[in-house]
Amino acid sequence: MDSILHAINGVPVLGLVFQFVEYFFSSLPFTAHVAVQLAIPICLAALCGVMCERSGVVNIGLEGIMLTCAFTGWFAGEVFTGMFGPGTPTPVFGITLPLALGLVAAVIAGMLMSLLHAWLSISVRADQIISGAIINILAFGMTGYLNTLLAATSLPSTGNFAALNIPTAVQKFPLLGWLINALFGQGPIGIATILIVVAFQVWLFRSRWGLRTRAVGEHPRAAETVGIDVIRLRYRNVVMSGAIAALGGAYLSMEATNAFQALMTQGRGFIGLAAMIVGRWTPLGAFGAALLFASSEALSQSIAVSPPPGQLGDLLNHVPSQFFDALPYLITIVVLAGLIGRSVAPAADGRPYQRESAS
Amino acid sequence: MSRSERGASLVAGVLRATWALTAVPLFAFVLALIVGAIVIVLSSVLVLKNSFDATLPISAYLALAQGAFGSFNAIVSTLVLTTPLLLAGLGVAIGFRAGLFNIGAQGQFLMGAVGAVAAAVHFQQAPPIVAITAALMGGMIVGAFWGMVPGLLKAISGAHEVVTTIMMNYIALSALAWIVSGPLQQSGSVPPTTPSVGVAALPIVLGRTGHIGIFIAFIAVPLAWFLLFRTTRGFEIRAVGANPDAARYAGIKPRRLIVLTMSIAGLLAGLAGACTVLGISHQMNGTFSTTVGFDSITVALLGRSNPIGVMLAAILFGAMRAGAGPMQINAGVPVELVDVIQALILLFLIANVVFRRLLRLRGVRGSEQTGFETITKSYGREATV
Q1: B106 interfaces chain A, CB cutoff of 8 Å
Q2: Do B171 and A330 make contact, defined as CB atoms within 8 angstroms?
Q3: Is B71 a domain residue?
Q4: For chain B, how many structural domains are there in total?
């Protein structure tokens, strides 16, 4: 058996592909877990985009919303630690009072930022792309400003949410163990994300709210005719989507790491937008696309931690590490360029709505 | 009507027109400064737990103004920092005119700088004039390429330039890190740095730091104006931006213009990068960072995508960037305040409907134009261009 494998591995090009597949499956338990971890913030950003754009509001400000919430959650956590002390973490998820309050603060901040975007794009009827860009610049500026101010002070550490420990027996479960570990060996925000994806998918396509949202995104005038309040529904969706993006931001500074860093979102909001497009404006599709984007980075991490042996390893050694850094962005561009024609946005996406009677 | 009356009415007319054009940006700026002052005071009290100090914003803004205009060298440094903003801002403005939102000035700037260094290193043995020309050309070509890619993607597949240009920015960061630590590394440099541009360094002609790139930037203003308003291509660019359907009906090919416009935008941003590296830093490292990307968007919007307006806005932001350092040192207010003010200016500009109602500018001709009109387009629709 081994000699056959060896022979196949020796074939030029095809052998490399074979080695790669072999490596991929052998590293799957590690890669899949990391991929889900990396996909969570991208997925939350994409879900925020789906919720906005299904009702007809383009939101490129979600990068900034996430960054603001990453900062707010972390900073509020520190402030509450100063007030109430660190508290004892719960055995599961390691939740403490300051962490929970910080998360609430992050969600409120996300909803406020979204409210600004909603006001500009729905009531002022401003250009939604520019409104989003303003939110991004504001977020980069404010978080950078406050972060520089805070650098001079010393803050107590709040820590972060802990991941759920899947027992080794379950992890080793044949065929499904790695999947269970990848999906549920996550912290509270991570697991919540997976639940939100499922709930949102059902909601959007099986509930009255979902039907109305889709109607408003496709043909607001018709929706208004049958008695749906377009303006109110758009406001509600955009503000709710801010709460989802807030979870994405909080995930970065309160679950994946335990501190805020300037510009820590690193374009995840924008990649989320691409994931939304690739996922055809559906929650499940967005999750899948986020996983796709994250898996390239997860694979590069896996290669860095335990490089594949033999010929493939030699080859990968010659690829500069920066190439792997750029890979998610490259994939985003390629997928976007390849899919955009076939992936159709809601018809009224990006168009401000004006009531006929109001003049 | 006597001659003096006619003269007076002409002056009044010019004043009214100037007011109509500048009132909204001016009020947006003043309002942003006021809100910025509130941010300074509140953050000092709430975050740093200092006692309430109402004079802190005044001393901060004074330090900023001092750093920007306080001496001859301060003015020169303002002009030096205006240079990249002006060039990249013109590029973004031309994009706006064609209905393209180019957020990629950042990446085009970085890659332009890389191109300039590469050309400079290659032409070390040549006479300075040749080396400088080659380095500037190198910056323009690489920048234009970096802008052309999103343009091509949009023209061919309809991929929205907002997302693709942002992705190109991140790819530029990785590319820069790789080039500086690989093909263009000065051997033995830790952290990795490129060799100096040597003979290709731009000559200093004003004060201590005023390099010749300043003049290149200001010459670009009439050129851009001429391109937009006095050439067929410029007319086509504006026509596509104003109404792509009508433009296509009139026989203009939007796809080709998208590629052309994005290339010009990239070329200008690349030239900005070239001027910065050849005129100021003379070499690059992996963390060569810049705020030109977002600043140039603000500059283009504040200047209403009009070359002369862009020039004024670029000087304003050059001054703010020049004064930001002294402000942090002398008043303890972080430089990022400039970003906050920038976002606030845009916020008040975009909410100018609300604003005009307050200022009762409704009747004044020209005050409605914000330069925002030609941008809104969404992802899906472009596939049909």
Answers
A1: no
A2: yes
A3: no
A4: 2
Q: At B285, is the secondary structure helix, strand, or coil?
A: strand
Tell the residue number behind the tokens 């300037």, with chain if given: A262
Question: Which residues of A are less than 8 Å from B35 in CB distance?
Answer: none
- CB-CB under 8 Å, A142 with B157: no
Architecture of domain A28-339: Orthogonal Bundle (1.10)
What's the token pair of residue A224? 């208004």
Could you list the pLDDT tens digit for every one of the 385 residues in chain B? Answer: 566 777 788 888 878 777 766 777 888 889 999 999 999 999 888 887 788 888 899 999 999 999 999 999 999 999 999 999 999 999 999 999 998 888 899 999 999 999 999 999 999 999 999 999 999 999 999 999 999 999 999 888 888 888 889 889 989 999 999 999 888 888 888 888 888 888 999 999 988 889 999 999 999 999 999 999 999 999 999 988 888 788 888 888 888 999 999 999 999 999 999 999 999 999 898 777 788 888 898 899 888 888 998 999 999 999 999 999 999 999 989 999 999 998 999 888 887 766 666 666 554 444 444 444 444 444 434 433 3
Q: Where are the alpha helices (DSSP H) in chain B?
A: 3-46, 56-69, 72-97, 105-122, 128-157, 161-181, 213-230, 232-242, 244-249, 254-276, 292-302, 307-331, 337-350, 352-359
| Contact assignment for A149 to B297 by CB distance below 8 Å | no
pLDDT in tens, B92-136: 999 999 988 888 999 999 999 999 999 999 999 999 999 999 999
- Cβ-Cβ contacts under 8 Å, A55 against chain B: none
- Contact (CB, 8 A) for A327 and A205: no
CB B67 within 8 A of CB B327: yes
Structure tokens at A285: 């599709």
Chain B from 124 to 143: CB within 8 A of any A CB: none
Q: Distance between CA atoms of B162 and B159, rounded to whole angstroms?
A: 9
User: In this complex, is the C-beta atom of A326 within 8 Å of any C-beta atom belonging to chain B?
Assistant: yes
A-B CB pairs within 8 A amount to: 174
Residue B33's domain comprises: 1-54+337-375
Question: Is the CB of B378 less than 8 angstroms away from the CB of A130?
Answer: no
Q: What is the pLDDT of residues A309-324, one digit of tens each?
A: 777 777 777 788 888 8
On whether both B298 and B342 belong to a single domain, the answer is no
Cα angle, residue B165 at apex, residues B159 and B167 outer, rounded to 5°: 95
- Which of B337, B378, B379 is closest, CB to CB, to A145? B337
> Are B26 and B160 in the same domain?
no
- Same domain for B170 and B256, yes or no, is yes
Domain boundaries, chain A: 28-339
Taking the whole predicted model, whether its pTM rises above 0.95 is answered as no
- In this structure, the answer to whether residues B27 and B153 fall within a common structural domain is no
Domain identity same for B128 and B179: yes
Query: Which residue from B334, B346, B351 is facing A145, i.e. has the nearest CB?
Result: B334
